[in-house]
Specification:
Number of strands: 15
Helix content: 40-55%
Shape: elongated
Distance between the termini: 47 Å
Number of domains: 3
Strand order of the largest sheet: 13-12-11-14-15
CATH topology of the largest domain: Glutaredoxin
CATH architecture of the largest domain: 3-Layer(aba) Sandwich
Largest sheet: 5 strands, mixed
CATH superfamily of the largest domain: Glutaredoxin
Strand content: 15-25%
CATH class of the largest domain: Alpha Beta
Length: 485
C-alpha cells in the first residue's frame, strides 16, 4: 500500500469502529482427515486477496479435530482455516448468524469430501462448489476426448457437448442464486459474477454498437455486489473489483473520476466500513497517481471527505492532509503556474511568466540529488531533440548550494534557462509541491500547467503526443515551419 500523508492506522481504526462485534460468541469445529498434532489458523482476507488477517488459532489433535471458539461473535465474512505450510485452506462461510457449527472433510479432497453440520450457509456453499467441480470434470473429459480423437466429426460433437455443459451449469447457477437470494452465501457467490450484457443495438452502418456495450457494462458493473453488506469486505473481491472499475472503466480525467467515485460512495451510505474503504482507496491512489494530471482527485477527496470530518482521522492526520492539499491545489493541471522569484546564472531577474515560448518545461532539481544527476543527460537529450518545436526548459535549483553552477557545467546544460533563489526565501515544498526531486511541470504558452510530476523519461513521448493532438496550438507557434518539416 502506498505511503502518503493519510494515516493508514487512523483510517483502519475508524473503519473498524463501524463494525463492533456483539458479545454472542462463536464455536467452529473442524475435523480434517490427514492432519494431526499441529496448529491451524482461522482468519479472513481483508479488502483484497493479499491481506490475510488471523483471528484465532486451534490445536489439532491426533484425530484431526480442532475447535475455534471465543466469547464474542466474529464479524461476518468468508473465513479460511489455514493449514500448516500456508499452501492449503478450508473455506468457511461465517454469516454472523450461524455461530456454532462443524465441518468434516479429508485434506486430500477438501471440497468433494466436505460434510457440514449446523450451518445451512456452508451446506449451500459446498453444494455449489461441488457442482462447479463436477462441471469442470465433465469439461476436462470432453477436451481430452477432443485431443485424442482429432477428426472433424468428433470435434463438432464435443463442441456441442461443451456448450451444453456450460449452459447446464449456467442454468443451475441462476436457479441456485434465485432460490437462495436471502443467504450470505448467495451474496458471496454473486459478488464475483460479471453482469450479463444484452445484445447490442445495430448502428446504421450494420455494426453492433460497441460503445453501448461498454456503457451498459459500466452502468451494471456493481449490480451483483451488495454495497450495503460489510461482510463482503472480508472476502477477496472488493479491491480487485474496485481497482478494475476505477482504472479500466472510469475515464482517467480528474472530473470524471471524482464524479463516478462520489456516485459510488453515495451508494454505500448505509455501509460505513465499505464507504470508508472506497474513500481511502481512491484518495491514496491519486495522491501520487500513475496517470499524469489526475492529482486533482486527491484534492477533491481530501476536501470533501477528510477535511469535512466525513472520514474520521486524527487531528494530526487532518493537519497533514490540509497541508498537502494547500501545496498541491495551486499547481494542479489546468492551473496557471505561480511565478517564481528567481535569478539566472548572472544574477539577473528571471520570471517564468517572462519566458517567451509555446511550451515550457520547469525542472525542479537538487544539484546533489542522485536521481537529478541521472535525469540530467535525459533532460538534455529531450531539449536538444525538441528545442526547435517551440520549447524551452527552465531548470530550478531548489537546494541552497553553490554546486548548482557545477551541475550545469558537468552535464552541459548551459543552453537551458537556469533559475536560483539567492534570497533563500522560496518554500518549494509548500508553494510548488516539490516533495522530491526531480519534479517536472510542463506549461503551455500561457503558462497553464498541462502536466505535472512528469517523469523525465516520459517527457519526449508526452511532449510529441501533446503536439500531435493540439495542432491549433502548434500552428500559432513561431517555429511552425520547423515543426512541419
Amino acid at each position: 500500500m502506498k505511503k502518503g500523508f493519510i494515516s493508514t492506522l487512523c483510517i483502519l481504526v475508524a473503519m473498524a469502529s463501524g463494525c463492533q462485534a456483539q458479545a454472542q460468541g462463536y464455536r467452529i469445529e473442524a475435523t480434517l482427515t490427514g492432519l494431526k498434532d499441529t496448529t491451524c489458523i482461522l482468519g479472513h482476507y481483508n479488502y483484497s486477496n493479499q491481506q490475510f488477517l488471523a483471528k484465532d488459532t486451534a490445536r489439532v489433535n491426533g484425530q484431526g479435530k480442532m475447535v475455534f471458539e471465543g466469547p464474542q461473535n466474529l464479524s461476518g465474512g468468508l473465513y479460511l482455516i489455514l493449514l500448516p505450510g500456508n499452501q492449503r485452506w478450508v473455506e468457511v462461510v461465517y454469516s454472523g448468524e450461524e455461530t456454532n457449527f462443524s465441518l468434516k472433510t479429508d485434506t486430500s479432497s477438501i471440497v468433494t469430501s466436505m460434510v457440514v453440520s449446523g450451518s445451512a450457509e456452508n451446506q449451500l456453499f459446498y453444494n455449489y462448489q461441488k457442482a462447479i467441480r463436477s462441471t469442470m470434470r465433465d469439461i476436462e473429459a470432453l477436451n481430452t476426448e477432443k485431443l485424442i480423437k482429432k477428426d472433424a466429426v468428433t470435434a463438432n460433437l464435443v463442441d456441442k457437448k461443451l456448450i451444453a455443459a456450460q449452459d447446464k451449469f449456467s442454468t443451475f447457477r441462476k436457479s441456485f442464486l434465485l432460490d437462495n437470494t436471502a443467504t450470505f452465501t448467495a451474496k458471496l457467490l454473486k459478488a464475483s459474477i460479471e453482469p450479463e450484457i444484452p445484445e447490442a443495438p445495430t448502428l446504421t452502418n450494420g455494426k453492433k454498437d460497441s460503445l453501448w456495450v461498454f456503457n451498459y457494462y459500466k452502468t451494471h458493473y456493481w449490480d451483483n455486489f451488495d454495497l450495503t453488506d460489510s461482510r463482503l469486505l472480508k472476502a477477496p473481491f472488493i479491491q480487485p473489483k474496485l481497482e478494475r472499475y476505477i482504472k479500466s472503466l472510469v475515464v482517467q480525467v480528474a472530473d470524471s473520476i471524482t464524479k463516478d467515485v462520489d456516485a459510488l460512495v453515495q451508494k454505500t451510505a448505509k455501509n460505513k466500513e465499505l464507504k470508508s474503504y472506497i474513500i481511502y482507496y481512491v484518495t491514496s491512489e491519486y495522491e501520487n497517481p500513475k496517470v499524469v494530471g489526475t492529482e486533482g482527485v486527491f484534492v477533491h477527496m481530501a476536501e470533501k471527505y477528510y477535511l469535512t470530518g466525513q472520514m474520521e482521522v486524527s487531528e494530526d492526520a487532518k493537519k497533514r492532509i490540509r497541508e498537502r492539499v494547500n501545496s498541491m491545489k495551486p499547481v494542479l493541471v489546468d492551473k496557471i503556474m505561480p511565478d517564481l522569484a528567481l535569478s539566472d546564472l548572472n544574477r539577473k531577474p528571471l520570471s517564468i511568466h517572462g519566458i517567451k515560448s509555446d511550451y515550457t518545461v520547469v525542472f525542479f532539481y537538487s544539484p546533489t540529488c542522485g536521481h537529478c544527476k541521472e535525469a540530467a543527460p535525459i533532460l538534455k537529450e529531450f531539449y536538444d531533440k525538441n528545442k526547435d518545436k517551440g520549447l524551452k526548459v527552465l531548470a530550478v535549483a531548489t537546494e541552497q548550494s553553490p554546486e548548482w553552477k557545477k551541475y550545469v557545467q558537468d552535464y552541459k546544460l548551459e543552453e537551458l534557462l537556469h533559475g536560483y533563489d539567492f534570497t533563500q526565501q522560496t518554500d518549494y515544498r509548500l508553494k510548488y509541491d516539490v516533495f522530491a526531486t526531480p519534479t517536472v511541470y510542463v506549461l503551455d504558452k500561457n503558462k497553464k500547467i498541462i502536466a505535472r510530476r512528469m517523469p523525465v523519461e516520459q517527457l519526449d513521448d508526452f511532449y510529441n503526443f501533446y503536439l500531435k493532438n493540439h495542432p491549433l496550438e502548434v500552428v500559432k507557434s513561431a517555429s511552425v515551419g520547423k515543426i512541419g518539416k
